[in-house]
Structures are given as C-alpha cells and as structure tokens.
Design goal:
Elements lengths: L12 E9 L5 H12 L9 H7 L6 E7 L2 E10 L3 H11 L4 E2 L2 E12 H23 L2 H16 L3 E3 L4 E3 L8 E5 L2 H9 L5 E3 L7 H9 L1 E6 L3 H13 L4 E4 L11 H9 L2 E2 H8 L3 E9 L2 E10 L2 H6 L8 E5 L5 E6 L3 H8 L5 E4 L2 E2 L1 H9 L4 E4 L1 E2 L10 E4 H5 L1
Parallel strand pairs: 8-9, 8-10, 10-11, 17-19, 18-20, 19-21
Antiparallel strand pairs: 1-3, 1-5, 2-3, 4-5, 6-7, 11-12, 13-14, 15-16, 15-17
Length: 399
C-alpha cells in the first residue's frame, strides 16, 4: 500500500531520474507520458500500469520546476520488484522522449536500496550507542562487547563461484548447504553461526547453485510468503534440492531470530513430501450455497498451504488480514474497521481472510479493490457475488 505524498513504507528500492522538457508542462503530463510511452515495452508482467495496480510499483512522484519556457525536475519511482526487474523499469523510463507536444529527455541518476540505507542509519546509531555504553559500563561489559564484535567480524560474507553469489565461508567444504534468497538472509544466518549458507540472488537460479546441488545435500530455506514459493518453484525445477524449510507465514528469513531459524531447519521437509503437500493446495468446490440460492459453480483457486494453516490463528480474534498477490500481509485490522480501511487506505488487494461474517457490504468493498479471494468465518446475507470473486467460509476451506 502506498501513502499520499511519498513512496510506500515497504518499498525496497527508489528509482531517481532527472527530466528536461522543452516546454511548460505539469506533473500529470509527465506521469501520463511515462505510462503511455512505456506501455507494452517490457510485456504484460512488467507493464507499469499493472505493476502499479498490484502495488509492486508505488505511486510515481514528480517534482517539476518551470523556468525560461522549459521544465525540469526529478522523477521518483518506488519499487518492490527485485534488483533486475527494478533496473529494467529504470531503463524503460529513459525511452520517454516527449511530454505532450514537447521534446523531453529522461536520465536515471540513482537507484537507492531503501533497506540498505535504513540498515546504514541503524548501524551508525548502534555504533554511537555502543560507544557510550562501553565508556559508561564496567570493564567486564567492554570485554564482552569486544568478544561479540570479534565473532561478528569473523562471520563475513564471501563471493562464491563464477556468479559471485553471497555466501558463508564454509560453502565450499561443507557436505550440506543452505540455499536462501538474498544477501540479507546470508548475513542473518552467519550471525547465528550457519556458515554453510549461499544465496540465489534472484528469481533465476544461477549455474553455481545447480552445480553445487549435484555434489552436496541442499536445504532450500525461503521466506514464508508468495515470493518464497516462487523461488522454490524455480529452485526445485532447476537444481537437485533435498529438503525444504520455510520461514513462518508472512515472515522473512532475514528477520528471524536464532531460535526461529533453528526451529525452521528442524522442521524441514524432504522435497518430495513438500511438493506433494503443495499439490493439494488447489481447492475444488461444487455446489455452493449463497443466501437462499444454490448455484453450480466449480472453482479452482490456489492458496498457499501456510496461509491455510494460518487461518487457525485467526479464529476468535475478530481480526482481518489483507494480502497482496504474493500472499504477503498488507494490513491486519479489526473486522469492524475492515470496510473503512478498504475504502480509505487500500489501493488494491488480492485476498482477504477475516474472522467474521461475509456480508454484502464487505463483498462490495472487497470487489472494489480488486480482491479475488474472500474468506470469512461463515456466510451471511451476501447474494450479489461478482463472477471474478471467490468467496469461501472456514468450514469449506478447512474441511
């Protein structure tokens, strides 16, 4: 979800570009030119309008100044895509050469990793806090701090193989390796003593991983969201994976504690068992009762198994969870506030699961935001069901 006046709080990257126009134009003219001239350039999956609707590209911000009969300024585009896809979007906006009737020139001058900047600020602040702490505390505390810092310094990320993948120092000599999604995941596992870890670094599986999987036992350890499932799909089809481990639903490997990491790895599944479990995620429903009517309706929907399991934790809470198309939680709100939050704070959503009754008002509000799947504790007075909206109750889903 994006907020007015700035990028979404969960944006991974910010694309910064300069723009010069040989005429007087306004912000809507520039945004219209960007959407219009990049349409269909990169295909449907990377179309800016579709990415904007799904929340993978945030609200485009333009700061423009008109002077001397010309316009110049800065374009800022928040991105939740991966690095390669973000670079493609950045390159695509540089093809904009006209705004209205005037010639224009767009040049990307920076792509900022928002999380890296946040981590940098945190580290600098932590250094300051630690410095004051060491100066004020007893000598024993200073010695302990130095010992901890020494361990952290020793657990450095290396570049492994021809693809220069982020990895721990034991990947080459270990019989078993843990394959994660990105560099931040590697750093977190190193911090907790797992040095046989390596990252794929993107959706495409590098040859380095494929070759390692032929010689070593491979544990794939991915985030507990839709993105993690997509990585697993690519990984299991390209490499010889032996076990699957998942972070808890909606959580990322990079944010887990040492205890949580150990639990996830203990609960790993053989790849055959995991693939068998996800093959059961397609749910077919025959005759579905809606109000007083019974209509023949056969639906096939895909709901990740971890999301289905998480429904148990909703029972009795009177809460609603709003998900994006990657099954990542956008918001968790009380059911009584669901309609207002949908109307006033949500641009687009993929699914809603809530501990309440499916009413017509909730159906209408959800459909207006592009929701495809609506799951409630039980059915209520909803009789007008849009064709593209699948509605389920807990008993239908969990039976």
């Amino acid at each position: 979800m994006s907020r007015m006046g700035g990028p979404p709080v969960n944006a991974k990257y910010l694309i910064y570009a300069s723009i010069e126009v040989d005429g007087i134009v306004e912000k809507p003219d520039i945004i219209g030119a960007i959407f219009g001239q990049t349409e269909s350039i990169l295909g449907e999956d990377l179309d800016l309008r579709e990415l904007r609707k799904s929340g993978r590209i945030g609200r485009i911000d333009v700061k423009i100044e008109n002077k001397g009969g010309k316009s110049h300024g800065t374009i800022i585009i928040p991105s939740n895509l991966d690095r390669a896809e973000t670079a493609l979007i950045a390159a695509a906006i540089e093809i904009v050469d006209k705004v209205g009737p005037y010639s224009a020139k767009v040049r990307v001058f920076k792509i900022e990793d928002v999380r890296a900047e946040k981590r940098k600020r945190i580290i600098e602040r932590a250094k300051e806090i630690l410095r004051k702490w060491v100066e004020e505390e007893m000598p024993e505390t200073k010695e302990l701090t130095e010992e901890v810092l020494k361990v952290v310094r020793e657990a450095e990320v290396i570049k492994y193989g021809p693809d220069n993948l982020p990895a721990g120092p034991d990947v080459g000599r270990a019989d078993t390796i843990i394959v994660v999604e990105g560099r931040a995941d590697v750093i977190n596992l190193l911090k907790h003593g797992y040095k046989n870890v390596i990252a794929v670094g993107g959706a495409t599986i590098p040859k380095t991983i494929v070759e390692l999987s032929k010689k070593k036992t491979v544990i794939a350890f991915v985030d507990g969201d839709r993105g993690g499932e997509l990585i697993l799909k690519n990984l299991t089809s390209a490499a010889d994976v032996d076990y699957i481990a998942r972070a808890p639903p909606g959580r990322e490997v990079e944010e887990l504690s040492g205890k949580e990491i150990a639990k996830c790895l203990r609960n790993k599944l053989p790849v055959e068992e995991y693939l068998e479990s996800i093959s059961k995620e397609k749910i077919s429903i025959g005759k579905m009762k809606i109000g007083e009517e019974v209509e023949d309706k056969v639906m096939e929907i895909e709901i990740p198994s971890d999301i289905i399991k998480s429904i148990e934790s909703l029972k009795g809470t009177l809460l609603a969870r709003i998900y994006d198309e990657r099954w990542k939680i956008i918001r968790e709100v009380p059911v009584r506030d669901l309609i207002n939050v949908l109307k006033e704070e949500i641009d687009v959503a993929h699914a809603i699961i809530f501990d309440g009754i499916v009413t017509q008002r909730i159906v209408d509000a959800a459909y207006s935001k592009g929701v495809k799947i609506l799951i409630g504790a039980r059915m209520g007075d909803a009789t007008r069901i849009p064709e593209k909206l699948t509605i389920l109750s807990y008993p239908e889903l969990l039976s």
